[in-house]
Amino acid sequence: MKLPDGSGIRPEEMRLSRPTIVAIAVAALGYFVDIYDLILFSVVRIKSLAGLGVQPEHFKTLGASLINWQMFGILLGGFMWGMIGDRRGRISVLFGSIILYSVANIANGFIGDVSAQSNLSFLHLLGLGDAISQYKVLRFIAGVGLAGELGAGITLVSELMGRHGRGYGATLVASFGIGGGLLAVFVSERFEWRAAYLVGGVMGLLLLVLRVGVVESGLFSSVKQSTAARGSLLLLFWPPRTLLRYLAVVTIAVPIWYAVGILITFSPELARALGVVDQISAGTAVVWCYGGLVLGDVSSGLLSQWLRSRRVAVAIFLGLTALAIAGYLVGTQLAPQAWVFYLSCGALGFASGYWAVFMLIAAEQFGTNMRATATTSAPCMVRGSVPILSTAWIALQSNGFGVIAASAIVGGICLALAIGALCFIEESYGRSLDFLEEHK
């Protein structure tokens, strides 16, 4: 097999050792659990709040508050686990994050108002005497735990695999993991909401058994013996060119979460605005979207390997995302049937399914002494953009724009910024990851 420079890919680079296979399996399962929880709250939001005695008129505001608590936890956790991964190792993050997430989710299945005369009356002293306060804190803790999963897994897999084959590993991790969203819908539709949270927590604890066999990255072991600075936010924010590189990496993936966080999350409201007569289920829209995301991640990952270019693969999928958004907002109005709308959700998922390539770019852009910090925090920053996007979306509607026009404007800005950011990112396919970042 020949590269553009005429050199060949050595067969040994494509072989997978047992430790590498275990790392890929564990990272994929960890991301599966990660996505399960991210989607779970969206589909059990109304059920859980109703079960806690919340009145319907408060579902939207309380739901938004709970999402913001979780997203804040994810943002904080992304930087925290990233620094731990660069200081103590990638494996420590894989263990610590899943333990924290699992305990929070299991506890989430038992929330409820506490009597001042019960054995748990001390919770009142902590401001956690009512179920909603407990819900918020546990969503925050779960968010912190979830933040470490994907970044640490992709960092470890990328460093264990050969430089020309690592794209296949990251593609498998991302595409399999997204299936967790489909399981979340399945479980939430067949079980009570408390049981759905318990399922997520138990899955995480079972995953700990597999993690016993994971070995540390050789690249990290080498840098650990060096005197190079590592695990510091200063490495991410200084010099300015490093910060700009980091922000560019984050920006190229924002359209993915615009699609999921706006167009899919608010699909029932958007469907009515688009003239769809039939009742649209957010859960069904998620299934179509995440089914498309799985196919998109596989396709974009393989395309980046076939083209030997991460940048070109992302550019192609950004173009597809623009077409899919247009199909969603315009095509549905021309044929306002439920099946057409759901099909557009699937197309939107496929087109925005370049998450695997985005994660690869994040891992390949930065040196070993700050790779975990960058790769773990970058997806959390992208997820954390959702409140900003939704706030802008609602603000446009409050200022006279219709819901469709507001969606088109926010989507257009996301795409324009992503395309501009892609121009500032260097091609990283086949790059050796054995290098360090200098802080000067």
How are the SSEs ordered, and which strands pair?
Layout: H1 11-14, H2 18-51, H3 59-87, H4 90-108, H5 122-125, H6 131-146, H7 149-160, H8 166-190, H9 193-211, H10 218-224, H11 233-237, H12 240-251, H13 254-264, H14 267-273, H15 282-307, H16 310-334, H17 338-351, H18 355-365, H19 371-383, H20 386-398, H21 403-422
Helix pairs in contact: 2-3, 2-7, 2-8, 2-9, 3-4, 3-6, 3-19, 4-6, 4-7, 4-9, 7-8, 7-18, 7-19, 8-15, 8-18, 12-18, 12-19, 12-21, 13-20, 13-21, 15-16, 15-17, 16-17, 16-21, 18-19, 20-21
Q: What do these coordinates show?
A:
The protein is mostly helical. The protein is built from 21 helices and no strands. It has two domains: 18-210, Growth Hormone, Chain: A (Up-down Bundle), CATH 1.20.1250; 232-368 and 385-430, MFS general substrate transporter like domains (Growth Hormone, Chain: A, Up-down Bundle), CATH 1.20.1250.20. Helices cover 74% and strands 0% of the residues. Helix 3 (59-87) runs antiparallel to helix 4 (90-108) and helix 15 packs antiparallel against helix 16 (310-334). The protein starts with 10 loop residues before the first helix and ends in an 18-residue tail after the last helix.
